[in-house]
Protein 1
Amino acid sequence: MEDLREILRQSGFSFKKQWGQNFLTDTNLLRAIVSDAGVDGESTVLEIGPGAGALTRALSERAKKVLAYEIDKSLEPVLSRTLAGIENAEIVFCDFAKADMVALEKELGEYVVVANLPYYVTTPVVMRFVEEAERCRGITVMVQEEVAERFCAKEGTAEYGAVTAAIARKGSCKITRRVPREMFTPRPNVDSAVVKIDFTSGGFAVKSERAYREVVRCAFLNRRKTLENNLMSVFRLPRERAKELLAAAEIGEGVRGETLSPQTFARLSDLLVEYKILR
């Protein structure tokens, strides 16, 4: 492939800050990300934000098919050069946030997501797959390092939060590699990390996904308050009822939500469904 910087220059492309465009060019790193994702000749890959197509090209070398969503139409001449001769990659110039997930999954069948996500859309994109996707087997994404820590955090740590608990319910999460800011063009102000969320391992069932989300939201609504007080406030429960629920879920008095595991939130949400407080 031609030098990416030269292609960008010749195409008259200018980086757009509002879309968080920071491109990777290191071939070894790109292939390592593809390897982290477990992509092979049977894989269908969905990529969000291909940018100049360097990761897309690396994915196409291993995958059966790559479908990529790119919001910036001005990258079309760049991608036509960086992906020249590649027949198993398709670029859709569209905002992924507006894509119909049901129709997309019907088209793709089982798939994995691999992307160097723009920082400003990281959490909304990941949460969309966590909450809506039914045929996605996993997500491997480059994200801001502190966000990666939040995705994979353990209960009781400062990084642990509602997004951590949401991901844990769906699958397992780990950081596969750290990536310094110098690896990007242009260079961002923060370091990054590759996170792999595997929907085929870990995770657990709940009686109501909606109830689980509401309990998690309640637990982290005010981190300084005890879970008992948050339950009373959010679900308008008398104190004795809140105490009864916590005891039934084997949760001690005076605890804060940030100290509880996702599995404990699941027990509590199931009880709230049983007691017909939530549906």
Protein 2
Amino acid sequence: MQENTPALWKIPPLAAEDHKYRRGHVLVYGGGTLTGASRLAALAALRTGAGLVTLAAPHSVWPVYAASLLSVITRPLAGTEDWQALLEDARITAVILGPGAGVDRRLHHALTASLTANKKLLLDADALTLLAQDASLRAQMQGKEVILTPHEGEYEKLAGALRLETGAHRARALATALGVTVLLKGAETVIADGAGQERANRHAPPWLATAGTGDVLAGIIAGLWAQGMTAFDAASAGAWLHGEAALRRTRGMIAEDLLAELPAALAAVDVGIS
């Protein structure tokens, strides 16, 4: 399996004539109860270079998001039609669904609508649980641009639903079965796609194993993907940058610390201005 290193990919260069709409626009679905996860993802996407990030959440908790996110656009969702309306904006280039979302009918609708809209779609956390439960969603995903970022437990749910053989190339088996890109999180994170490409990321310290760091990873990947990287390279670069940011801290690090270290991690591989 190929070792994931910066020699294999290049983060999108900045251009002197860039403006925020040319840097990609990430849309994040915010949960109605657990509000921290999607906020971490949104801020990570912004820190990674997305020109705009919008977080949409149920109207009842929208004030929590609006009061705490200054650089992220926040939108209240009064009903399912509001999410649909956001997806109609052609400037939105990537969508994050799952962190802190809750496994419910609202998430199901948001996932279905996002797949129908043919947006680049990163699925994490509760969206993966929903995907494992619903075969119709898995069928609808075929041929779409999708990245899945499961941890071990979420992988087992999906593998069980698909009756996959769990051998040495588990991430590749899931990626092939669904025709998507998979980042399987662990002490050795494995990135695979439906074409058979596979990379192992070992550039990460053990103190990354703490709550919220996976949400930050989802945001990093979506931010890179929104700027034009391929799904496979965005996932690979995201895993490396996530580890690099963590390596700049030490034991006792929390997820929020990664956000502060992302600019330095990016500087380590930045190609500058084109």
